[in-house]
Amino acid sequence: MPISPAWARPSAFFFDTLLEQLSAEQTEAVLAHELGHYKRRHIAKRIALMFGLSLVLLYFLAWAKDMPWFYSGLGVEMTSNASALALFFLVLPVFTFPLTPLMSHYSRKHEFEADAFAADQAHPAHLIAALVKLYRDNAATLTPDPVYSLFYDSHPKASERIGRLETYLHKRPQALRT
């Protein structure tokens, strides 16, 4: 059986500082969370989404580069593929800004799914304790501004994650609660 290259194998990296901060049970819960991303194919889904969005954007670039108003509207007289590309990337953030909360929501959804996977594999209380430590050690605010969070946060608020994980404490079979 051929051995796949290192870049093709699923990997999770833990820095020594993380391992020093967390207990063995908490590290296991964090690893289970990261494995949840792999098992739920979050990376493949994100790559496919970005590929599709890139195709759409390239289509609009190909369309806009042949339109005289695209250059004149931005005050450029020289029309070329290079100037079209530069202008397109200059104005792109204006048009993709409305997608920001959708992409953030998608990312937060994946975090909740990975948390649920971790809660099935490890004790949710260990993941809760690890999250509290990591949020505290990273000086992350536990009560971020809701509008800012809606647009930019790729991870759910700590209180939301902990609240959901606490529901898994009660759903675990009695034999697994300890």
Plain-language structure description:
The chain has nine helices and no strands. It has 178 residues and is an all-alpha fold. It has one domain (23-176). The two termini are 41 Å apart. It has helices at residues 16-21, 24-39, 42-64, 68-72, 81-96, 100-121, 124-137, 146-152, 158-171. The model has no long low-confidence stretch (mean pLDDT 86). Helix 2 crosses helix 6 (100-121), helix 2 (24-39) packs across helix 7 (124-137) and helix 6 (100-121) runs parallel beside helix 9. The longest helix is centred in the N-terminal third of the chain and has 23 residues, at 42-64.
Shape: elongated
Number of domains: 1
Radius of gyration: 22 Å
Q: Structural class of the secondary elements?
A: mainly alpha
Helix content: 55-70%
Total helical segments: 9
What oligomeric state best describes the polypeptide chains here? Answer: single chain
Question: What is the percentage of strand-forming residues?
Answer: under 5%
Q: What are the segments in which pLDDT stays under 50 over at least 5 consecutive residues?
A: none
Order of helices and strands: HHHHHHHHH
What is the number of E strands?
A: 0
Distance between the termini: 41 Å
Largest sheet: none
Calculate the mean pLDDT score and round it.
86
Short structural description:
With 178 residues, the protein is mainly α. It is 69% helix and 0% strand.
